[in-house]
Amino acid sequence: MTVLKVSGVHTSTIGSFPLEDSPANRRRCIDDLLEIDIDFPTYPQLVDMCKQFLDDLAMQDQKIVTRNGRYRLIGKEIKTDVSPLGLDPFLWTLQYLEDKGVKDKVKLKAAITGPFTLASRIEIKKGSFPYNTAVSNMDLVKQLTAALVKSCQKVSKETSIISIDEPILGVIVGARTTFRCREEDIIDTYNALKKACEGKFVGTHICGRIPPNLADTLLKTELDFLSHEFHDTPVNINAYTSNKLEESGKVLSVGCVSSKNPRLEGTEEITKVMEKFRQYGDDLIFTPDCGFKNLTVDGSKEKGYEISIRKLKNMVEALKRFKARE
What we know:
three-stranded mixed β-sheet; 11 helices; 10 strands
């Protein structure tokens, strides 16, 4: 597959939806994304983003035990020589697209849960979070990074865009201090996974508020795009300047609809969010703020899913207005 370099303005998704994981729901999600005409749809993530990868790791590493949905390392090291982790929904989606005869037409985006976030879900001792988890030990984070290399190599052969999803970084990297990892640790981790993706268009998604020192660190990586929430966290627009993004050669991926609030944003409202980012270059990607996994309406996942699809439809329509005003 030819290496993709994103140019122009596009739409994409983060991945998750508020439906139970089943073949029928996977088909429903990908069919809806294709009908909406999302430019870079992420394969449907209908299970917890950490469980998706850690269950595979636990099956191959007897030192990681699971109990009541929790993971615990009973040894001192995490196994790195493992088969690709967490790729079942991605590979399922590829096969489904091939069966539909559209695999070569769809620019699929692959989501890989990052090693810092996975480490934050593995308990290593008693104590309070995150001090009791593997994210407090950089050696273990590095081992998880090594374990994810084969996953990155595998998806890079079949996809257009790869996102290393690291929501925990917005928590452990504060405004002034970084929790038990140095700036170079973050940079080296991202660069190692970027290299494993073998030249593909690779970025990261981090939701929540982006502290200035985290933004500066991300700009120093070899990543191609940076994805954050801007609808519910508008202060993130101050995280980067257009000049710094241009100097770093990175594309900004802008969350422009809420993934938490079931209120349906109108197309004009979404367009106004998009308009704030014209200064950030000619290449932009617009997405929801985050995945829709926890979006419900009156406790109903079905209603939450219906709203998420309507939000995406309005986002696509808003982009048409955005382009028309150029």
